[in-house]
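Quick one: co-fold with flavin-adenine dinucleotide.
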Amino acid sequence: MTERFMVTQTAVNIASRAEEAEDVVTLRFDWDAPASPGQFIMVWIPGVDEVPMSLSYLGDRKGITVKNIGEATKALTSLQAGDQMIVRGPYGRGYHVPKGKVLAVGGGTGMASLLPALERVPTADVHTAIGARGERELLFEERAKRTSSNVRVSTDDGSKGFHGNAVQLAREMMSSTKYDMVLGCGPEKMLYFLHKLCAEKGVPCQMSLERYMKCGAGLCGSCAIDGKRVCREGPVFTGDELKDMKEFGKQRRDECGGRLRL
Amino acid sequence: MTSLKVVLAGVEMENPTMLASGIMGETGGSLLAMAKGGAGALVTKSIGSAPREGHKNPTLVELEFGYMNAMGLPNPGIDAFGEEMYEAGKAGIPIVGSVFGASAEEFASLSKRMQEFGAEAIELNLSCPHAKGYGMEMGVDPDVVASIISEVKAAVAVPVFAKLTPNTHRLIDVALAAEKAGVDAIVAINTLKAMKIDVDAMRPVLSNRYGGLSGPAVRGVGVRCVYELYEALNIPVIGVGGIEDWRSALEYIMAGAAAVQIGSGVGRVGPRVFGDICSGISSYMEVNRLRNISQLVGVAHD
Ligand SMILES: Cc1cc2nc3c(=O)[nH]c(=O)nc-3n(C[C@H](O)[C@H](O)[C@H](O)COP(=O)(O)OP(=O)(O)OC[C@H]3O[C@@H](n4cnc5c(N)ncnc54)[C@H](O)[C@@H]3O)c2cc1C
Ligand SMILES: Cc1cc2nc3c(=O)[nH]c(=O)nc-3n(C[C@H](O)[C@H](O)[C@H](O)COP(=O)(O)O)c2cc1C
Ligand code: FES
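Sure, here it is.
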């Protein structure tokens, strides 16, 4: 009768820690919970906070890739091999792994959620556009090359690759190749314009969104976007679903549930 | 034809399932989504006078038979909530405005605002077990409860419901005091005060340490409370606690609930829980040749 299996809190030990880019750390840990690409977990650092993190690696040795932007992410990025954190999940509806030619567009830590999906598509069919502010913030270029036949990079400051943002780069790639599906994960402004681009080109897309999450489990409503729970009906939404959302790209909510303009 | 229609203290509902306060009730859009799931009425998140962040995470523990939460009454504040009520109103079903305050005056002024926003009834949260200075701390004292209700009744014209806590041996005293003060219905139960300790972390999981237990784990307590309240009171009782299918809803109705609320079931089953319960009850009524849901209210009593 229930929608899914019960998820409980599990203590996991960090098996390895790797610095991916400036202020970005990947933590790997052994945890055999079933998970699909695009799903996320709630990570508790006792005494600090509990926050949502996408799974950047699936399988038995899972991983999260964390950018240090505040208290909880600072604590997470400071963890060392052997340290403990407590996880629950996985939660949410991830990517529907596509068939045909795929363009993945990742900005910020977005590649973390995209890569497990791309690894399930034949390499020859995947092209990837990775956006970063500058070269030092560039994430997962090498790993993307192992799963894509064409990886291009954009930097806002022009320090590497295409000088501009990931959506401008995606536009260039979409004008020379016809894709069957675009997958996007990154800052919402990027996703908003990427969604517009896909609509213009008539290419179906799926995008992973972020909202403030408290329970992570579909109860409290703090992650709501147009009445949909990002933690349950999302975090990945299809282009058609996004088209009907008035709040997508426009509005998010604070810890109190008050409206904030994006 | 069977009818699930309910008139609850004057509030007309297409069916007896209501969304419980605090679950998907903070935004207009999420309230609309619960209406789509088939709810007969919607109770909003408990709203206070000012924006409130609530407790820090972890605020939720998932258990095999329910949840433990200590959200800490996060809400955008009454001024910001008008916009959400306006949007929720598009659902075309009754919206019950839940409020919490630290004094009778605060409850009354919040209730008035909710009425202005279009609430068809007010639910007073006298029972949150994890917010200091609010909720249960006031709701276990019959005199305090009576004075809050008198003040609110004097301030609004719509029906007023009092939501009570099971965390007291004086539940019936409190309910009788509420009835005497003029309340229109009693809602029972809120969560049971509880704690979860993680043995790996060697500490309570919830940042607030204490939380409230909900879901099937508390159903037996809720059904017992509703049964006792039905015997003691003349006003309607609304049953809540661990309802997630038609059988558990009927347990409450047979114990004496005129309507039921569903919270945890929205997480465990999904928003379709309301519609599923209604079709299950309809089939049960057809099999038992019952025409009206009211024929089942309280049948478990001698
Ligand atoms: C589904 C999902 C997947 C995510 N995946 C990743 C990932 O793979 N890698 C990564 O680095 N980050 C990811 N994030 C973002 C990450 O959760 C936040 O960066 C983190 O919570 C910040 O906490 P802090 O204490 O370090 O910063 P704070 O100083 O507390 O907050 C900084 C900002 O982070 C955001 N934030 C804070 N708390 C939360 C919360 N509970 N839920 C959502 N956002 C919050 C807010 O926008 C806030 O303004 C994801 C978020 C979501 C919703
Ligand atoms: C996450 C969560 C938040 C809640 N918030 C409120 C609230 O703001 N006001 C309130 O009166 N009750 C609140 N409750 C209590 C529920 O309305 C309900 O009384 C209780 O959970 C038992 O019902 P259930 O088993 O169907 O969840 C909350 C419960 C949960 C699980
Ligand atoms: S975080 Fe999605 S409903 Fe609570």
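If it helps, Chain B has one domain: 6-51+75-192+216-301.
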